[in-house]
Amino acid sequence: MPLAEPPQWRRKATDFFSTSSVKLKQAGQSAGDNIADVAGKVGSVVKSRWAVFQEARQQQQHPPHETVQERIITAAASTGLLFRKGISETKEKVAVGKVKVEEAAKKTADKSKSILNNIERWQKGVASTDVFGVPIEATVQREQSGKAVPLVLVRCADYLVISGLNNEYLFKSEGDKKVLQQLVSLYNEDSGASLPEGVNPIDVGALVKCYLASIPEPLTTFSLYDELRAARVSIPDLRNILKKLPNVNYMTLEFVTALLLRVSRKSSLNKMDSRCLAVEFAPLIMWRQGDAGTDLRNHLKFTLKPPPKIVDTTSNTATWDLLDEDDEDASSQIPLDDASPPDYSSIEVIQCLIEHHNAIFTDANETVWR
């Protein structure tokens, strides 16, 4: 089946590409005829590239998938080159008024690049460097760091162990939304990046929760959900069930719960004991397949927007928003249902993993903080 394309997205994108050449020509007219000619050529090529995107999406009934994908990627790459070439030619031909032309061309090129990146992201599901919203095993495999834990979690844990364990309500406070968006962008661009100097530990703790909320399948996997809930207070049973996890999930779960154990040992200062931490993390570590999402998980996912780093290729509701420049408070669109009962069994599982961490994860290498 072809991917659904909402009218608003198609209209906004088409309008943008249709007016790009006009804006460049207007800037060029203030500087000379040669600029207008070059700008017109660039604008025409852009519109033809957009037609390639539309045609490729309409052909996904399915013609050979690789052919469509190659056309999408080639068009996206060559469009940026054409913009740069057009700007270069403009600068060479005219000196008077070049500032106006460069500003208009750069603005158009930047906007076009953003749209093209989002279209390519549609085709692939996520960008090649993203860590948020990507299966955890794929992230670890791509990073090739020698660790079986995503580097974003390693960086956050190292930072908190050194300078954040005493902060009151660590992992409970929401953190600053704009700071979180910046941190998400940072790690989607470079998963091995260091945290900015002076970042608030509360924001770092919230980033850990955002990451766990974003991955498509929980650390405990869907298949073990019922088994874990049934064995929630049995250390031997939990130990044996967790051995069924993929290695990356097992080691990351060990790493996260080791961090939570460290936090709980400072509960007299941070007011976050093992029960409080379990309440915060259970919805992010365990959930049933097909679950639409707890209020907490949904809220954290919406906290990640914008920038649009996580794109649901099957959704018809959010794609046209990729063209919008307004920074809307997306989290306000989620109605929090206070009557929704907590999953107490999952909370008990996570609490047990924290309190009896060393006894349950006997086969894991003990987490060592630098």
TrEMBL record:
GO terms for biological process: signal transduction. Coiled coil: none annotated. Residues 134-361 form the Rho-GAP domain. Transmembrane segments: none annotated. Pfam families: RhoGAP (PF00620). This is Rho-GAP domain-containing protein. The lineage of its organism: Eukaryota, Viridiplantae, Streptophyta, Embryophyta, Tracheophyta.
